[in-house]
Each structure stands twice: as C-alpha cells, then as structure tokens.
Specification:
The protein is of the alpha+beta class and 155 residues long. It has a single domain, classed as Nuclear Transport Factor 2, Chain: A, CATH 3.10.450.50. The chain contains three helices and seven strands, in the order H-E-H-E-H-E-E-E-E-E. The chain starts with a helix and ends in a 13-residue tail after the last strand.
C-alpha cells in the first residue's frame, strides 16, 4: 500500500507541475484513453447533479481542449500555481485505486496580480498505481459555487 501511496503522490506532483509549467500538451497523458474529467461545485456534487463547468469523457476531448485554448480561445494570459495536499487512499480494487486529495490553486495574471483562484478536492480513480498511474476518472469538486469565467486552464 505504501508503494501505491507514493506513486499517486508523485503523479499528483507531476500533474501540478505540468500545468503550472505551461506544458499543457502533456496534460492529457496523465489520463487513460477512455477517461472522465469534470469540474463541478461542491453543491452540485453533494446533490448528485451531473452539471459540470468542464466535462470531457475521453483523452481526445482533453487534447481538443488544449488545442482550443492554444489556438482558438481568447483570454487574458495567466498562469496557475497548484498546492496539492497529501492524498487519501480510499480503496483498492484490482489495478484501480480510489483516492482523494485537497488542492488550492493561485492564479497569476500577466500584470503580476495573484489571487486564490480555486480550492477543493480531487476525487480520482487511478489505474496501474503501483507502476505508472494514469487517471481513469478525475472529478474536481470546487469548494465554492462562485467560479470565475476565466476557467481556461485545467485544474
């Protein structure tokens, strides 16, 4: 179990570094081909509502999202800095591991202004956690239902 914990901890750190270093083309590689990625509010999650601010149900959709933000979307340039807490391993079934990790994301604007952008938790299902963990599912549950319209970069 300790190997799984450290593999997922390492994967979470690599995930954050990938986004924070603006290597977004590598971001989909953290997921299996037939994955689920969605961002929702704590209220929607608590009520069991499937409404999502961002929804993708394949690695291809994640790749399209990165392509669109690089070439089609118009937004003020900014960057993120993730702080991810230690994961909790919630269960292991075969090669699937359920885990939860809290996060905070600061947003740094082009002019240097920095603000707390989002807090919440990752609810994850990982495959192959003992070796090279890949996300089968990531539900990003934001603590607040007040989400800035500038939700461009992945959380």
């Amino acid at each position: 179990m300790q190997e799984i914990y450290f593999a997922i901890t390492r994967a979470l750190a690599d995930y954050a570094r990938c986004i924070d270093d603006d290597r977004l083309e590598e971001w989909p590689d953290f997921f299996v081909d037939d994955c689920l990625y969605r961002i929702t509010s704590a209220a929607n999650f608590r009520e069991g509502l499937q409404a999502s601010l961002v929804f993708a149900n394949s690695k291809g959709m994640l790749m399209d999202r990165v392509s669109a933000l690089r070439t089609a979307n118009i937004y003020e340039r900014h960057a993120y800095r993730h702080i991810i807490g230690n994961p909790s391993i919630l269960g292991v079934e075969g090669d699937l591991v359920r885990a939860e990790a809290p996060f905070m994301v600061a947003r740094i604007m082009r002019d240097g202004a920095t603000s707390l952008f989002a807090t919440g938790r990752y609810l994850d299902v990982w495959r192959g956690a003992a070796d090279n963990p890949k996300l089968v599912e990531r539900v990003v549950v934001c603590d607040s239902s007040r989400i800035d319209t500038l939700l461009v970069l992945p959380l």
